[in-house]
Amino acid sequence: MQVQRKRVLLFMLVAVLLSGGCRPSGEAEKTPESTAFTYVKTGMLGLPDLPVPGDNPQTPEKIALGRELYSDARFSSDGTVSCATCHNPATAFVDRLRVSKGVKGLTGTRNAPTVLNSAFLKTQFWDGRRPDLESQAKDPLLNPVEHGLSDHEQLLKIVRADQKYTSQFETVFQVKAEQITIDHVVKAIAAFERTIISGDSPFDRYLFGKDEKAMSPAAIRGFAVYTGKGRCQECHMIGETSATFTDDKFHNLGVGFALVQPKLQQILEARAKGQAEASDEKILTDRETSELGRFAITGLQEDLGAFKTPTLRNIALTAPYMHGGSLTTLQQVIDLYDRGGEANPFLASGIRPLGLTPQEKSDLIEFMKALTSPDLPK
């Protein structure tokens, strides 16, 4: 634990030195193409350099503020839900539910993805509807089945009336209480989330650390299946010096698509007329809209039923799986891929039967267990 604390402190110090001073936030939403990043070395085996937006540099004070905001349940309509409710630090930053529960016990349509290493992703949410952690943090606050606030002003009233918070915001952003905006709030939360990273898994020590004994023989065999017959690396990518285990793209595996397939013609016609625009609220409250995947955001036919490739890091800790939490075990996930997904007209071109043997499936599971980091952030 002492080594882990030193590593975190070193990471924070390097982030501060490389990122420069704080600047007040703007109101315009960023896109990956318009944002200049500083890349910070994490000091963790297997992880790439961490991208930090130029307009939201890391500082220890901002990270500490973000940590408190992340866990504040007052930012919900009934005082029961915080970011940590669905992305719980005690359970690898997921809630281990099929779909998450929000205010008043209401449930949505999507499984909560882990925040672990989400800072490396090019888009956020299963359908990629937000480009960064800052913009992602705004949506759950207003969704009626998540935090359930009517507007961001409800949260800001709490923050502006809290003397500890106002002092922190003045230190971090150089703003008085009445000047605090939702952009300041989400920048602090995002800064904290950029410290929620994990590497140094047995796999990392085996491949990048050149330690041949870091993985079990079964996991080593599973690695061969992963890069060979299983064809996993085509989407869950491993680089030469680091691995995020995702291609940051969207693919149709057919999971849940049977619900919308009979209505595809109506859906396409409605979208062509501009009648099927999907809001954050509709995605999480309407099952049919949710199952449209990336299409609900882009309107592109090739995105029908396509969802983002999740990272496989710590995958053994983050069940259930898939965008709707429909698969409860790694065995079920492997069986899905082995049979070539669920047939539909928009099935991803790379998805086809694999013909894995029971031994190959077992070894593949052991390999995925070797992607678990020994010391997760708390």
Automatic annotation (TrEMBL):
Manner of cofactor binding, per the entry note: Binds 2 heme groups.
Residues reported to bind heme c 1: 83, 86-87
Record-level Gene Ontology MF annotations: cytochrome-c peroxidase activity; electron transfer activity; heme binding; metal ion binding
Superkingdom of this protein's organism: Bacteria
Cofactors demanded by this protein: heme
GO cellular component, one term: periplasmic space
Positions bound to heme c 2: 232, 235-236
Keywords assigned: Heme, Iron, Metal-binding, Oxidoreductase, Periplasm, Peroxidase, Signal
SUPFAM superfamilies: Cytochrome c
All copies of domain Cytochrome c, residue ranges: 217-372
Modification after translation, per record: Binds 2 heme groups per subunit.
Localization (cell): Periplasm
Signal peptide start-end: 1-27
Main localisation: periplasm
Pfam families: CCP_MauG
PANTHER family in the record: BLL6722 PROTEIN, CYTOCHROME C PEROXIDASE-RELATED
Protein name: Di-heme cytochrome c peroxidase
